[in-house]
Design goal:
This protein is α+β, with helices and mostly antiparallel strands. The protein is built from 18 helices and twelve strands. Helix 7 packs antiparallel against helix 9.
Length: 418
């Protein structure tokens, strides 16, 4: 089923999320989509938006809700409808535990406000020295090995250690929550793309995380410290403390979101540098492009490929009439390669300016941890290319995870020496 503006030929519903290329090599597909059907309603029942300007228009509009309960499931085909049954206590509990990322004001405003002070540029800058220390330790070990998986030995442990420091989570527990975190990240893909095994693993991981943080928060109530968990336990909003479900969901979101996307940014950024030696040389030798280089990695690699919004009111988008209750899938990574917004969008250019990428979204749901992710990537990648100037891939082809929302490398085997 497709819809078209008056006087135009209906666009072919070319977005097929079952195609494995959307995970392994999506950018040629995005280019085709922007050309042939930049806005369309596909056979699965939801709208797909591929251009930068259209994605931005939806992200800016208050009628675009992050709360999936606003979707009119009757318009979605059988097999991908999601309805919370009144007599399903597990489903009700899961709904109550959804983090502020998937809520609208006023709940979103209240919950985000309680943690936003931990991610201000000033606080993040205070973490730069600690980040450099961890980067140096990881690079010392990697350089001694000579050949490593850069994801496993560098891109993953760095943001995990920093977010654990910030939250007050024991870093020695990272092996416990690594599997849970991956299960939740994989589970961010739409349910209709997931096997029952993956969906079940997501539910189990959420329960394990909830139990883990329940115990940690109980410790902070008995003996508060200076970490973010302690501040959340003590936080009040207008005299009302966070509910237990709000506390748990916020902690889980901060830990998982605090490292999963940054892992993909660091690994994806390293791969882009390896594949563009001239840009790598400039990034290594010219401190003036450190910040713009990381912004270009956010655009070019697009660790967050897409996001969704539910419409709470009728919406006109490029002549298409979207209705309240419709679900809209925004292909952020496609917008990041849109030639109407970026000159030579397929070129990787560490000095690109301006660079209005959608890597952190836009509007009230703009990524809370953006300053932290930027700082970590700047420290990690400048240190990597300067300390390992002969960094080289040891494989011809890299393998990506099967995720389509959070796109990232499964591994990045490299040879390195100082």
């Amino acid at each position: 089923m497709t819809s078209s503006p008056k006087g135009t030929t209906p666009a072919r519903p070319v977005f097929d999320p079952y195609d494995p290329l959307w995970a392994s090599d999506p950018f040629p597909l995005y280019a085709d989509l922007r050309q042939r059907a930049p806005v369309h309603r596909n056979d699965l029942g939801f709208w797909v938006v591929a251009r930068h300007a259209d994605c931005l228009a939806v992200l800016r509009d208050r009628r675009a809700s992050s709360d999936s309960t606003n979707v009119d499931v009757e318009r979605m085909p059988p097999g991908i409808r999601t309805r919370v049954a009144a007599d399903d206590p597990m489903a009700a509990a899961m709904l109550e535990m959804r983090p502020f990322l998937f809520r609208d004001p006023p709940d979103h405003t209240r919950l985000r406000g309680l943690v936003s002070k931990a991610f201000t540029p000033r606080v993040v800058e205070s973490l730069r020295a600690r980040t450099q220390q961890v980067v140096d330790e990881l690079l010392d070990a990697a350089l001694e090995s000579g050949e490593v998986d850069l994801v496993d030995r560098f891109a993953y442990p760095l943001p995990v250690r920093i977010i654990c420091d910030l939250l007050g989570v024991p870093v020695e527990d990272q092996d416990r929550f690594k599997v849970w975190s991956h299960a939740l990240a994989r589970g961010l893909d739409p349910d209709f793309l997931l096997t029952q095994e993956v969906i079940d693993a997501r539910v189990v991981a959420l329960g394990q995380f909830a139990q883990y943080f329940f115990e940690l928060l109980a410790e902070r109530r008995r003996a508060p410290g200076e970490d973010l968990l302690s501040r959340l336990v003590q936080a009040e909003d207008g005299g009302t403390v966070l509910s237990e479900a709000e506390l748990l969901s916020t902690c889980i979101l901060l830990l998982v979101a605090g490292h999963e996307t940054t892992v993909n940014l660091i690994a994806g950024g390293a791969l882009a540098l390896l594949r563009h030696p001239d840009q790598c040389e400039r990034f290594r030798t010219d401190p003036a492009v450190t910040r713009s280089g990381v912004e270009e990695m956010l655009r070019y690699a697009s660790p967050v490929q897409l996001t969704g919004r539910s419409l709470t009111g009728d919406f006109d988008l490029g002549g298409f009439g979207l209705r309240a209750g419709d679900f809209v899938m925004l292909l952020l990574a496609s917008g990041n390669r849109d030639p109407e917004e970026f000159d030579a969008p397929e070129r990787f250019d560490v000095a690109r300016s301006p660079n209005n990428h959608l890597g952190f979204g836009f509007g009230i749901h703009h990524c809370l941890g953006a300053p932290l992710a930027r700082m970590e990537a700047q420290v990690a990648l400048t240190s990597l290319v300067r300390r390992a100037p002969d960094l080289a891939l040891t494989v011809d082809d890299v393998i990506y995870k099967t995720n389509i929302v959070l796109r990232g490398l499964e591994s990045l085997p490299v040879a390195m020496r100082g």
